[in-house]
Amino acid sequence: MSIGEWIRGPAIGRGSSATVSLAVDHRTGAVFAVKSVADAARAEELRREHSILQDLDSPHVVRCLGLVDCDLFLEHAAGGSLADEIKRLGAGVEEGLIRSRARDVLLGLAHAHAAGVVHCDVKARNVLLAADGRAVLADFGCARRIGISGGKVMGGTPMFMAPEAARGDEQGPAADIWALGCTVVEMATGGGAPWWPRFADPMAAMQHVAVSGEAPQWPRCNTWRTRRTFWAGVSAGTHGSGGRRSSCSGTRSWPPLLATPTILSQLSLGRRSRSCPRRASSTKRCGTTPRRASLPARAQ
């Protein structure tokens, strides 16, 4: 899709340095999103994000349509963000939907990591929902290329940072897997931050993770038919040691999450990780019965 003359629509998202708006191609009527910065100093960040997205081509990674000056053109996801969906469903995000969303994000991460890219800011707000039901990994503003020194060392959202990221060490694929585990907690709690209410201050949570390597505890609801192996796979994603943490392509801890042989073959799952820690014994029980949320139809 080439962008010609276009008309800017309403803003649909705002960050610390950029605004995302709807836009319409004047000639074709196609709807897309445009991420804009206010000045040329910030434009370098868009150029870096554009360069990274140009190397990615997955149905589970937001598609980049082009870059002009201070505007980055992106695929529009009509379903909004995963954070919006969680807010809408509240405590009613059932296991099947959590499994589906996490699986799609994992596929997007597997593609990015295979291309030498670390996202560095995985969370529900940065996962978009396409009209056909796909979850799409978006906002690569904090992303970096694996093994390239210089640039940003620390990036992301404090509540979702892995221990090595919180300590200011170099972020690798394992940090994305930790953040995915935290995003599962975000879904399972109906939108609660991974460390809430134990740490209301994000910086306090980050400092605790940096020192202790402790993972947030997984919620457990009696109304869920949760299989131990499912949570074991997710728990392996938040192992305190990045070197022992599950990865997209180096562990068999994720099959209960991925569910189908086709998806497993896409990830080329190989050697099992050395350790899959048990779920924390201290858990919270949900006080109310969650509403059941139906799973949207998926593209064939």
Topology:
Elements: E1 6-14, E2 19-25, E3 31-36, H1 40-54, E4 64-68, E5 71-74, H2 82-89, H3 95-114, E6 117-118, E7 127-129, E8 135-137, E9 144-145, H4 163-166, H5 173-188, H6 202-212, H7 228-236, H8 255-258, H9 261-267
Characterize the largest beta sheet: strand count, sense, and whether it forms a barrel. Answer: 5 strands, antiparallel
Count of the separate structural domains: 2
Classified by CATH, the class of the largest domain is Mainly Alpha
Instruction: Specify the oligomeric state.
Output: single chain
Listing every helix as H and every strand as E from the N terminus to the C terminus, the arrangement reads EEEHEEHHEEEEHHHHHH
Structural class: alpha+beta
Strand content: 5-15%
Number of strands: 9
Helix content: 25-40%
* CATH architecture identity of the largest domain: Orthogonal Bundle
Q: Any idea of the CATH topology of the largest domain?
A: Transferase(Phosphotransferase), domain 1
Please state the overall shape, judged from the principal axes of the Cα atoms: globular
Mean pLDDT: 78
Euclidean distance between termini CA atoms? 22 Å
- pLDDT under 50 segments (min length 5)? 222-229, 259-300
User: What is the strand arrangement across the widest sheet?
Assistant: 1-2-3-5-4
CATH H level of the largest domain: which superfamily?
Transferase(Phosphotransferase) domain 1
Radius of gyration: 19 Å
Task: Determine the number of helices (DSSP H or I, runs of at least 4 residues).
Answer: 9
